[in-house]
């Protein structure tokens, strides 16, 4: 199949497929006489695997480790378990950070109980007085 067909079958954009090729996650395909890329079913399976990993918010480096395991039949899967365990730890850290952020935003919202002129807005005043230790962590859902 051509790159457009592969991308559609995997539910991705063509640019995403090219990116995974350039990143080394998807091997370079064979080329036809017309120099078009030609992909087989194995490429589709690998691309779906990558897509499933990305849906779990795994990094490209984590995916590389998992793909290396796939490419080594009979290899011990303890490295796969380790990657998932570490990723789960990162997810739990992000959840904890988001819970702190939620509490901070709820506290800010409570500081504004009624409509006020802008300079008297409880939220704006609270943000202007917040100390560095009271501010949310720099890394959040919008920093990606």
Strand content: under 5%
- Read across the widest sheet, the strand sequence of neighbours is 1-2
**How many β-strand stretches?**
2
Q: Please trace the helix and strand order, writing H or E for each element.
A: HHEEHHHH
Total helical elements: 6
Spans where pLDDT lies below 50 across 5 or more residues: 138-144
Global mean pLDDT: 86
Instruction: Estimate the global geometry from the Cα principal axes.
Output: elongated
Please describe what this structure looks like.
The chain is mainly alpha-helical. It has six helices and two strands. A two-stranded antiparallel ribbon has the order 1-2. Strand 1 and strand 2 (37-38) form a beta hairpin. Helix 4 (60-70) packs antiparallel against helix 5. The longest helix is centred in the middle third of the chain and has 33 residues, at 78-110. The chain is elongated. The chain starts with a helix and ends in a 15-residue tail after the last helix. Mean pLDDT is 86; it is low at 138-144.
């Amino acid at each position: 199949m051509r790159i457009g067909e592969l991308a559609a079958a995997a539910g991705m954009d063509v640019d995403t497929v090219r990116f995974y090729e350039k990143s080394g996650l998807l091997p370079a395909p064979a080329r036809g006489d017309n120099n078009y890329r030609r992909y087989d079913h194995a490429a589709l399976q690998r691309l779906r695997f990558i897509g499933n990993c990305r849906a779990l918010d795994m990094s490209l480096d984590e995916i590389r480790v998992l793909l290396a395991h796939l490419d080594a039949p009979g290899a011990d899967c303890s490295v796969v378990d380790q990657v998932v365990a570490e990723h789960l730890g990162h997810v739990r850290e992000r959840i904890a950070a988001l819970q702190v952020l939620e509490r901070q935003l709820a506290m800010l919202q409570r500081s504004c109980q009624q409509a006020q002129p802008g300079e008297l807005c409880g939220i704006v005043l609270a943000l202007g007085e917040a100390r560095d230790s009271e501010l949310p962590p720099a890394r959040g859902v919008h920093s990606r």
